Request: fold
Amino acid sequence: MFIWSFCQTIFTPPRRPSKEYCLAPYDGEAMEADGSIEMQKEILKRTAKGLPLFTRTESGALRYCERCQLIKPDRCHHCSVCDICVLKMDHHCPWVNNCVGFSNYKFFLLFLGYATLYCIFITATVLKYFIRYWEDGLPSTPAKFHVLFLFFVAAMFAVSLGLLFGYHCWLVSTNVSTLEAFRAPVFEYGTDRSGFDLGVRSNLRQVFGPSSRVWFLPVFSSVGDGLSFPVKSVPESCSHLLGAVNTWEEEGDSNEEGTIFVKAGTAGVVFESES
Reply:
């Protein structure tokens, strides 16, 4: 299971935004040729029409990637290492040489979990020989140093991986990515780190899927398409910003605070590019 999860994390390519979010070739050329802000506003407004966008830049503008020439979906970020925009990007992991995002985040979590269990198993089974080493109960051969080395390496990896796994479990339970934990997403009503938090149960189902039978298997079962995500209801003072937004309900689920869930919708904003 550890090797399977590890391979799935490495070889699953990051999912990119669909063509609906990309500028048409002539629009991209027009934006490069004509540097006027009004022209850029008009092009971006035409491209964003009807798209399920809810997050904004800190200035309230639409999130736009100049390098990929596309409008960023909610929770999408540009990876400078892969040089692509990745849906629900969590971070770029050098240990797996891949971006961790919507397409492989479940695999990454399982990889951390099984790696932690694997290191704990090695530590526990070597412990008695480690104790015998200090009691001079092992034969005086070079092999006894292998026991010492194996125990310390397994124990250190068990602690470090366990802490990392626990941190990501907290992120999943609150529906926050690593990038969002350091820089909270900005909505039309302001910054809100818990804007995508639907409650622990719904958050887990969003990553692992509705069927618990496949939660511990490294097969893709995440909910959604990675382009849009349900969000909590906004304060009543800002509810007019939503306009005709659809209500989101998941088989009668509601979050612990009794708020309703809404699906991201578009509204009038100031359009500008974001690098």
